[in-house]
Amino acid sequence: MIRDDLKKIIKKSLEREGFKIEDFQILKPREKKHGDYSLNVAFEVVEKSPMEVAEVLKKRLEKEKSFERIEIIEPGFINLFLNRKVFEKGVNEILKKRELYPVLNMGKKKKVQVEFISANPTGPLTIGNARGGPFGDTLANVLKQAGYEVSRAYYINDYGNQIVALGHSVLKDDEAKYKGEYIDFLHNRVSEEDPYIVGKWAANIILEEMIKATVQKLKINYDEWFSETWLYENKRVDRVLEFLKKEELTYVSEGAIFFKAKQFGDIRDRVLVKKDGKATYLLGDIAYHEYKLKDKKFDKVINVWGSDHAGDVKGLEAGVEALSYKGKLETILLQFVTIKKDGEKVRMSKREGTYITMDDLLNDVPVDVIRFFFLEKSFNTHLNFDLDLALDESDKNPVYYIKYAYARICSVLENAKIEASSIKKARHFKFLKEDAEINLLKELLRFEEVIEDTACDCEVHRLPKYALDLASYFHKFYSDHKILDEDKRIRQARIELIVATKIVLHNLLKIMGISAPSKM
RNA sequence: GUCCUCGUAGUUUAAUGGAUAAAACAAGAGACUCCUAAGCUCUAGAUGUAGGUUCGAUUCCUACCGAGGACACCA
To answer: Does at least one atom of strand B sit less than 7 Å from the CB of A184?
Structure first.
């Protein structure tokens, strides 16, 4: 843990010099000449000028063994150049831990649930609602790598009005709402007449035959498919309502039961039971979260929602707080996917028929490309999807650049008749001297920071960016230097380096749910 | 009208308040007697507008313009 170790050293130095800084940043400079890491703490100290602080701190840090040299740059940056021993240690860690690398203990085995997609079972998954698939799945992988015990869930909204609406749609009566080929398909198979029964029947087929199939093609494995109906059948909804009543967190107004959500920072109170006596979605959702937090004992639950539910976050948070689980719920809002048609943006809508199903896309574009395409974008990005462009450029997707790096390594090892598993230590580390070699090995060691940072802020798009950087350093190294060099020691040093690269690429691709073939 | 996201190169996207704004695709140019040219090297190209905060702003604040979303006793 290079960065963590640095933090300790610097913190100690700051204290020794009597600088009172609560927290400081360790920056990763863009420019190599600015060091492996850099500090801007000197700007934070008020007692002296930044340059003076930097000088004092430099002298103190120079007593540590970790640095090859330390530079100060106007107006007060401290640039740290690490000692080669630090890198050697890091590479050996990779070669030792193998597919377990990086071994992190951020999570301390705490139980986290990631719930994602959870699209209503009223139709096939669209490109829009499936955006959360690669995101949630990869986030779960990251958290697991960071040392959490992770579970994946899909919440099935198989209760309520939309199921009746689905029934009407399948029956094609006056109240029909949804259209599409799947409705025609279900219409031809229907044998009942009651809209609710038909809706239940149809939702089940949609879930089992369409949604689950698509999810499987996306290489996602859920630990739990949770039915909303279960909450009602097992009186969980009634129970949570009774609890809220008992806590005097409800009141009746105009025949409806309200939840005093404002008490918990919400912008308004929320209806729990409508005047017709039926529970609202929110009440069911609070009951669901009681199940997650109380029954399943998750220390934290992360919900990945579409941004159209932004207005509902506060209400659920208030409910979770009322159950005394404040702070254990985190919600990530994914921005919508718009599709481009004839140069115009069109919002995806099941009713307008302006949607592309994920299944259709999966028929034309490899899953690795799809996963990478969605993972690349930050969840705050309003994603424009141009289907024609996606089909045209599928084979130009940068995911191949990464896979190619992996395949090249495998090929070199095969030519050298070396099993990667036989390389267990960087015994010839000192023969790595070229810039391209050093850059590559430094990039390898960034992997653990990438995982750590992503587990903290859920910015999953950091992974594909890192993968591209890493692959780029590898390709550059490959072009500049022959790995199977005639000098045996250099050859061996480079083999050790590429085996470490292979391990990192493998683990990284696995976390993103992307395959790593040895040949292309 | 109020609130939430967002506005960066021709296009799709990056950039925990840090140093010369990064990459891919598209455009133009170059190098193979050598481990996979799905690679490498080079060129051209961008922060919506106007202010403010500060040593420093794509990032924070205000206003405006533009895009998407939300403002239910729907889910």
So the answer is: no
